[in-house]
Design brief:
Layout lengths: L8 E6 L6 H15 L5 E6 L4 H8 L3 E4 L10 H8 L9 H8 L1 H10 L8 E4 H6 L7 E5 L9 E3 L19 E6 L4 E10 L2 E12 L6 H5 L4 E4 L6 H17 L5 E9 L4 E8 L9 H8 L4 H11 L5
Parallel strand pairs: 1-2, 1-3
Antiparallel strand pairs: 4-7, 5-6, 5-7, 8-9, 8-11, 9-10, 11-12
Catalytic activity: 2 D-alanine + ATP = D-alanyl-D-alanine + ADP + phosphate + H(+)
Family: Belongs to the D-alanine--D-alanine ligase family.
Function: Cell wall formation.
Length: 311
């Protein structure tokens, strides 16, 4: 961008069409509020199927993509923005689509030398009828985020009946992975010009159950310890593998890698890479940025200044 930051017109995309709409509205509001007074104009856009027309009329200098989940995070909106030749925040078309597909992203990460869970894709009706792998295991949609539609099946539990119900809207194939006991960890990465920089490691303890949608976004749903109290070699490995994952997936801007650490067997497993981490009041990435001296407004400004359009 050649224009001074204070002269920019930034359109903040929020809401959208996915099951993560409410989270996106919260992220988008926070980012738009942070930009008010820093740039010349902020346009708040509840993104719908008329997005291309809306943006063509607004003519923003930059788009801050605060959408989460399907359509906004999977490469579709990124393609619209590249067609309109508008610089935008976060990852591009290919890396966004890749990260949203858990099966394909696991293959890329494994090839890069990152330890990922086993398991694979199974027909949703088969998963509802019987245990397709020995319990304990995790059942989740192949292309959703924010722990939407995630179920943990423990020894003695019945198969996951939810995948066989008519209300299941997450596709005919579901991801089933062995459950990794231990600590829930997260690492935010900034894709700086000199290379990806991991900020720190957060240890997340849900107040009940596992780190599901409510634990992530409800006030008091989980407690965060940062930096995480881990063996030094695991702490360092989480940082390095997050940077490796960011590069292997072709991410840009901000990404977040989520891990499980089996402290009994000293095994660290990367569960997934998020190309558009939440920016809500309870989100991990702003918290980690603040820990290294970058407050919320600074982080949002950095993301806007990092925006680009390959086409």
């Amino acid at each position: 961008m050649t224009r001074p930051f204070s002269d920019l017109h930034v359109a903040v995309l929020m809401g959208g069409l996915s099951s993560e709409r409410e989270v996106s509205l919260s992220s988008g509001k926070g980012c738009a509020d942070a930009l008010e007074g820093q740039v010349a104009r902020v346009s708040r856009v509840d993104a719908g199927r008329d997005l291309a027309q809306v943006l063509a009329e607004l003519k923003p200098d930059v788009v801050f993509n605060a959408l989460h989940g399907e359509w906004g995070e999977d490469g579709c909106v990124q393609g619209v923005l590249e067609t309109l030749a508008i610089p935008y925040t976060h990852s591009g078309v290919l890396s966004s689509a890749l990260a949203m597909d858990k099966d394909k992203s696991k293959a890329v990460l494994k090839a890069a030398g990152v330890v990922v869970p086993g398991g694979g894709l199974f027909d949703r009706m088969a998963v509802a009828r019987s245990h397709v792998i020995p319990p304990p295991y995790v059942v989740k949609p192949n292309a959703e985020g924010s722990s939407v539609g995630v179920y943990v099946v423990m020894p003695g539990d019945a198969p996951c009946a939810a995948t066989g119900e008519g209300s299941w809207t997450y596709g005919e194939l579901v991801m089933v992975e062995p459950f990794v006991a231990g600590k829930e960890l997260a690492v935010t990465v900034l894709g700086e010009k000199s290379g990806p920089r991991a900020l720190t490691v957060t240890d997340i303890t849900p107040k009940k159950g596992f780190y599901d949608y409510e634990a992530k976004y409800a006030p008091g749903g989980s407690s965060h310890v940062l930096p995480a109290e881990l063996p030094p070699h695991i702490f360092e490995r989480a940082l390095r593998e997050s940077e490796l994952a960011h590069t292997a997936m072709g991410c840009r801007g901000v990404s977040r890698s989520d891990f499980r650490y089996d402290d009994l067997n000293d095994v660290l497993v990367l569960l997934e890479v998020n190309t558009q981490p939440g920016m809500t009041p309870t989100s991990l990435s702003p918290e980690q940025a603040a820990y290294v001296g970058m407050d919320y407004k600074d982080l949002v400004r950095w993301m806007v200044e990092d925006a680009s359009c390959p086409r």
